[in-house]
Amino acid sequence: MKSSFIKYFYIIFIIITIGIIFTSCGGDNNIITPVTNNPQNINQSTPPPQTITKHVAGYIYATSGQGSMAENFIILDIPATGQDSFPAQMSGYLQQNYPAEWNKPEIQEIYTQLSDEMVQWKPLLQYKSSAQLFTLYSDPPINVNSDGYFETDVPVQSTDDTVGFEVVLNDKEHFSVNRTSFADLLTSTGGTDGQLKSCSKTVFALPGGITIFKIFATAMNLKESCLTFSLDNSSIGTITPPFYLKIKGQENFSIAYGVFKAVNNASGMAKTGIINAKTSNGVSGQNIPMPVEIIHETVSISGKVFSGGSPLIDGNVKSIGPKSFCHLDTEGNYILPEVFEGTNREIIATWWTDDAGKRTKHVEIRYVDSLNGNLTDFNFGVPPTPTPTFTPIYTPTPTYPPPTDLYYEYITEKIIEQKILWQEELGWEQGIQKTVNWLNGEVIDTPVPLEIKEAIREAKVNEFNSYSMKIYFKSGVIDGITDPNPFPTTVTNTYLQNSVITTSGQAGTVKNLRVLMLGPAAFETGDHHWVFSNIKSSFEKNHYTVTRLGVFTYQLIGGQTPTPSLPPSLTPTPIPDVMFFYPAFKEPKSGKYIMRCSVINGEGLVRPEDFTHMGDYGVVYIMAHGFTNLLMACPFYANDEQLNNWITHVPQNYWEYHEMAFSPFYEEGEFTPKDMIYYRIIALRPEFFRAYPQNLSGSLVYVNGCSTWELHDTNKVFPDAKVYIGNSGWIDIGKGALGAYNFFKYMLGEKNSFMAPMSAREAFNKVSDMFTINYNPEMDTGSKNENDNTYLYTDSATVIMQKK
Fold this sequence. Notes:
Blueprint: E1 4-6, E2 15-16, E3 20-22, H1 39-42, E4 51-62, E5 73-76, H2 86-97, H3 99-102, H4 105-118, E6 122-123, H5 124-127, E7 132-135, E8 149-157, E9 162-169, E10 173-181, H6 183-186, E11 196-198, E12 203-205, E13 210-217, E14 228-231, E15 237-239, E16 246-247, E17 250-251, E18 255-262, E19 272-278, E20 287-294, E21 298-307, E22 312-318, E23 325-327, E24 333-340, E25 342-355, E26 358-371, E27 380-382, H7 407-426, H8 428-439, H9 450-453, E28 456-461, E29 468-473, E30 478-482, H10 494-498, E31 508-509, E32 514-519, H11 531-541, E33 545-550, E34 554-557, E35 578-581, E36 594-599, E37 619-623, E38 626-627, E39 630-635, H12 641-649, E40 655-661, E41 678-684, H13 686-691, E42 700-704, H14 708-713, E43 723-727, H15 733-748, H16 760-767, E44 777-780, E45 790-791, H17 795-803
Parallel strand pairs: 3-13, 12-20, 21-27, 30-40, 31-45, 32-33, 32-37, 34-35, 36-41, 37-42, 42-43
Antiparallel strand pairs: 1-26, 2-3, 4-5, 4-6, 4-8, 7-9, 9-10, 11-13, 13-18, 14-19, 15-18, 16-17, 19-20, 21-24, 22-23, 22-25, 25-26, 28-29, 29-30, 35-36, 38-39, 39-41, 40-41, 43-44
Helix pairs in contact: 2-4, 7-8, 11-15, 15-16
């Protein structure tokens, strides 16, 4: 089980039913007051929320169940059974408005399954006469009729769009229930200019199960606005078109419903996708993506909430799953019997203490990156300080989390938050310099928080790049932060200027017909995403055996749809290589600045070990972020056991973390510090390459990234390559990709039908002047340029070499 760390943002409540999951509508818009594991900050008083009264109505049911899913509860706007029931109205609307879709077998299967399951549901009090229904802010229970209907006024926060509920059984078992809309929305006639809202940030489904979800809008007629639903990954299931219900006999087009049926994925492998809800009329371009996650297992989580020595009044712990809510006992203990497995799972603890007669509220959220087994001793709060006893005096050795722990990401994000504030005030470079001075204790008027001070040994501005800084943790972990240079740079080829270039060397070729292509940053080439595959095809047409590893496709999960329009490499694919979890684009990020990368399809991904056998290949092409003393190996795949095992067991001076700007979001010169969103990479140091010496004397090595010439020239990485090509200083990643593409095309004689294959020097001279802005390739063919006449194997090149 991977370690957890703390983060804070909006609370979302979701409830599962047997076979059917009804996604919770909306969520509290209340931002949780940030607290940390620091004992001096944990006891923060939270003022009572400002509430208003809203009218709510609906039908509350207990679903039928089996095994561990026996007790689940759901609220509908209309009855589950009868003449005007939910299934009956769904079928009537789809038959009339989407006859072709209705007649599809998969839609018929959804309707049949929905009807069969709903007929087994029982109104709440028929299920258990002592059951009670509460809202989040009301102490007295809500009156529920025998048919499950309730209607009342309840307190909600003034910023809420929906109401959250819970069911209590036997005065001790608590179950979260899906949120529901206010009653005034049920009678809204709407227009075309309202704001589209989703009922859930994430849609959860069981294998073979069905999920009901809702899209709603105030002052908006969704039918007239041409609302549509689409599923980006058809391999995970089926989705119905949007349909609308009559509520108390009145048509309502402010709330749209949809049903998703998940595939019965018996393999147990996680499946994900995105449901897009889009309007094309009224306020144009509104689109809400709802990530879909198919759940297979539940796990238990248990632990204790420590009150820091103050008397504990009350409290609870909750997460997402069928039995994922628990009140604390008098000692602060809790157990959540059934929480959904999955990534980025959050567990929320809320408790009240008596501090000298004052009732103080505490909220803490712990985040588990990959929840795939039972958790014990998962504690919150501040454990009491043990009573000191006399022991011999000694200096203990500090213990720090392992390098894979997301503690380091948490600390770095806190630093990024302060860095961005100063960059907005002072500019990019000056903001970085002041952040470094601050971490080193040189900014007196802004104290460094204790949690950062205890973690960081020192910080430095990168001596080769004033847009980059390094953080040195006391544990030995190093984390860099690099901002993109926002200004174009005009460059000239200094290698050609300062060298006497001759081509008198004997003609020769690389040592074999094997090619290694490593593309850890290939997914960032935007409009030039085709380059990597095209280079591979060119080699294969000339009888080379190509090994291609990298990150080529990805999916974005979370936040809002980024604007402007994203390049083709952002288009979701059926099985992307990785998934990035990102905050709302260009919106307040609640302290979240680093997008987490998780593996979806691990086959063909690049990892650090793939850089240890380059000597086996005649041609090596690498597309990666580079630095004067670092080379990117891969993104940090947070859920990848193989990568985490490598990080844990290799010497710590072989690698560093680095936070890179997620370049597909940014166009040259069109971003400010507050827009920055980063992703974490693993970067290899020169010590790594010296630990794995390789014979590259017969190889052509092309490393396409920033400062990869300095990596070779200054730090002697790949010193014995027969031909080495890298870039000097900062480059545009798209231009670098095109440069490499044309270089190999020239060498293989594929640039056009009448051009013969070129030597390395001839091809390099062709591409070195392609661009004058943000592109500066350099080439090393030996101290006397004796390998200028190196060719790649082709039938035509053999003839040319014989002539030379």
